[in-house]
């Protein structure tokens, strides 16, 4: 069955343009104009990926609130912001709330589709890998790849798809420095360097919420990151 994509966008013509392009690529697409309408639908059935605008009708930051609510409902669901708001503060806010990617509306349709394809592929890539089996353990870290669950010292750490993939890519080769471009190549994804950096900062905070002494992700200045055993 083809993946279902939910588009939450209050400008109908824009939403229909995205929908038509994605349907031509074989996706099932559902459109929602408001946060409440989308939430009602998501409580009944979750999509495979959500594309959300920041401003939704009268709610100037309704998309941010929806992302927070959706992330609480589904920690691993791929979420992508697609919005006209391109300030660094908005981008950081979106990523802090748990979005996997943040795009602006000046992006071309083929580029948008490439990012969506990459995000969905990330889920299947992780689940299809069998070189470590279904579980990966490094010291206090335990990753259940099949269920996309992460634990640190036995305590759960809620990671998004992107965050889980980054941790997995680093932890499977402890001590090896992974550049930002190598992290992208490892799972065949399309992300820029600043987005990778933002995700790493968020990952560290999540582990530090569980263990204040967490320092397993080291920065190799000018090179990238490595997992410290």
UniProtKB/TrEMBL annotation:
Transmembrane segments: none annotated. One of its GO terms (molecular function) is phosphorelay response regulator activity. SUPFAM superfamilies: C-terminal effector domain of the bipartite response regulators, CheY-like. Residues 133-229 bind DNA. The lineage of its organism: Bacteria, Pseudomonadati, Pseudomonadota, Gammaproteobacteria, Cellvibrionales. One of its GO terms (cellular component) is cytosol. It holds the Pfam family Trans_reg_C. Keywords: DNA-binding, Phosphoprotein, Transcription, Transcription regulation, Two-component regulatory system. InterPro entries: CheY-like_superfamily, OmpR/PhoB-type_DNA-bd, Response_regulator, Sig_transdc_resp-reg_C-effctor, Sig_transdc_resp-reg_receiver, WalR-like, WH-like_DNA-bd_sf. GO terms for biological process: regulation of DNA-templated transcription. The modification 4-aspartylphosphate is found at residue 53. The gene is creB. The keyword Transcription applies. Residues 133-229 form the OmpR/PhoB-type domain. This is Transcriptional regulatory protein CreB. It comes from Microbulbifer aggregans. Residues 4-120 form the Response regulatory domain.
């Amino acid at each position: 069955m083809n993946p279902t994509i939910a588009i939450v966008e209050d400008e109908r013509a824009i939403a229909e343009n995205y929908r038509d392009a994605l349907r031509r690529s074989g996706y099932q697409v559902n459109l929602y104009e408001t946060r409440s309408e989308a939430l009602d639908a998501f409580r009944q059935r979750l999509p495979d990926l959500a594309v959300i605008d920041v401003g939704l009708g009268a709610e100037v930051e309704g998309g941010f609130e929806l992302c927070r609510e959706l992330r609480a409902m589904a920690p691993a669901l791929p979420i992508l912001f697609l919005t006209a708001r391109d300030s660094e503060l908005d981008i950081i806010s979106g990523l802090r709330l748990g979005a996997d990617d943040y795009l602006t509306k000046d992006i071309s349709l083929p580029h948008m589709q490439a990012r969506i394809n990459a995000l969905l592929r990330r889920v299947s890539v992780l689940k299809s890998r069998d070189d470590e089996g279904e579980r990966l353990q490094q010291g206090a870290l335990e990753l259940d790849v099949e269920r996309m669950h992460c634990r640190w010292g036995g305590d759960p750490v809620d990671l998004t798809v992107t965050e889980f993939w980054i941790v997995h890519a680093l932890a499977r080769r402890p001590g090896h420095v992974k550049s930002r471009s190598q992290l992208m190549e490892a799972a065949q994804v399309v992300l820029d360097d600043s987005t990778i950096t933002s995700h790493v900062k968020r990952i560290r905070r999540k582990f530090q919420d569980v263990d204040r002494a967490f320092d397993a992700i080291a920065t190799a200045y000018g090179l990238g990151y490595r997992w410290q055993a």
